[in-house]
């Protein structure tokens, strides 16, 4: 039971754990089966961990495609295997969708709608057409610009964390208490969010973006911390590198990576808030 550790938690976290327990058990009571869309980010991993702690069986589904770095898909699969989760990997490419191909402002909605249909199709092929599909949206997402939320509502997808009022800070703290690996994992939205609206994505460009961001993420300071902090490499359509921490200590390495990946010249822009821009 998720709330079993309640007495050992600070009161606000214990209350959050109780709300989550109630929401997850309600989902399990009302649905013939549960499935979770596992991106590999901290939110969906925490949801899987919470369900495991409740002893609620579920099937995890991970969608891999050109908009998701291969390294992230491999990491999600390794995590699921280490946790003993049943995982289905669903091949999905949104690049044929007109809204995505044209860089429409509705691309996130269109992509999410098509993705959910692909996950439903996989569930049906596994004999689970009536399974309740859950995602890891948290309470903070309800107050942010998340075009895909409309697709979730229309498809009848449950968001137990958001429904239980679990914010990002809550799940990070609870995750740390419950042994979740890397509870401070930074958000890495899909690569399509790096493209300005109206800028058409191509598979080769997506691959170069993934490689460049992986190389940038590997840069560390003298204490072993990520040298750039959180960051995004954007195409506006000219390249823009948003980075959280000062650049000078690794400036030459950054320029080398961007040149080698074909994203130079590039506007190097230190900003306090990294999320935003597109979707």
Rounded to the nearest angstrom, the distance between the terminal CA atoms is 36 Å
Query: Describe the biggest sheet?
Result: 4 strands, parallel
Total DSSP E strands: 7
Strand arrangement in the largest pleated sheet: 3-2-1-4
Please tell me what the overall shape is. Answer: globular
CATH architecture of the largest domain: 3-Layer(aba) Sandwich
Low-confidence stretches: none
CATH class term of the largest domain: Alpha Beta
Average pLDDT number: 94
What amount of the residues lies in strands?
5-15%
Helix content: 40-55%
Structure annotation, total helices = 10
Order of helices and strands: HEHEHEHHEHHHHEEHE
Structural class: alpha/beta
Descriptive account of the structure:
- With 279 residues, this protein is of the alpha/beta class.
- The protein folds into 2 domains: 2-177, 3-Layer(aba) Sandwich (Rossmann fold); 191-270.
- It has helices at 11-30, 42-54, 70-82, 98-101, 107-125, 148-154, 160-163, 168-177, 203-217, 251-261, and strands at 34-37, 59-64, 87-91, 132-134, 231-235, 239-243, 267-270.
- The chain has a 4-stranded parallel β-sheet, sandwiched between helices.
- Helix 2 links the parallel strand 1 and strand 2 (59-64).
- Helix 2 crosses helix 8, helix 5 packs parallel to helix 6 (148-154) and helix 9 packs antiparallel against helix 10.
- The longest helix is centred in the first third of the chain and has 20 residues, at 11-30.
- The radius of gyration is 19 Å and the shape is globular.
């Amino acid at each position: 039971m998720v709330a079993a550790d309640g007495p050992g938690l600070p009161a606000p976290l214990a209350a959050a754990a109780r709300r989550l327990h109630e929401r997850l058990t309600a989902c399990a009571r009302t649905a013939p089966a549960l499935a979770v869309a596992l991106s590999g980010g901290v939110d969906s991993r925490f949801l899987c961990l919470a369900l495991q702690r409740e002893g609620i069986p579920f099937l995890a589904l991970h969608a891999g495609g050109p908009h998701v770095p291969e390294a992230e898909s491999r990491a999600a699969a390794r995590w699921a295997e280490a946790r003993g989760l049943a995982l289905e990997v669903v091949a999905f490419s949104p690049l044929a969708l007109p809204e995505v191909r044209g860089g429409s402002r509705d691309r996130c909605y269109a992509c999410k709608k098509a993705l959910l249909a692909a996950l439903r199709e996989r569930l049906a092929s596994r004999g689970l057409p009536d399974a309740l599909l859950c995602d890891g949206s948290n309470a903070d997402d309800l107050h942010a610009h998340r075009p895909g939320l409309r697709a979730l509502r229309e498809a009848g997808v449950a968001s137990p964390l958001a429904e239980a009022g679990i914010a990002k800070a809550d799940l990070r703290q609870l995750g740390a208490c419950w042994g979740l690996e890397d509870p401070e994992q930074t958000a890495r939205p899909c690569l399509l969010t790096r493209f300005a609206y109206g800028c058409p994505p191509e598979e080769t460009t997506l691959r170069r973006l993934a490689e460049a961001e992986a190389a940038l993420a590997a840069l560390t300071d003298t204490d072993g911390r990520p040298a750039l902090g959180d960051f995004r490499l954007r195409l506006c359509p000219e390249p823009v590198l948003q980075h959280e921490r000062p650049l000078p200590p690794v400036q030459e390495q950054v320029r080398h990576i961007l040149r080698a990946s074909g994203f130079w010249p590039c506007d190097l822009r230190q900003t306090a808030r990294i999320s935003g821009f597109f979707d």
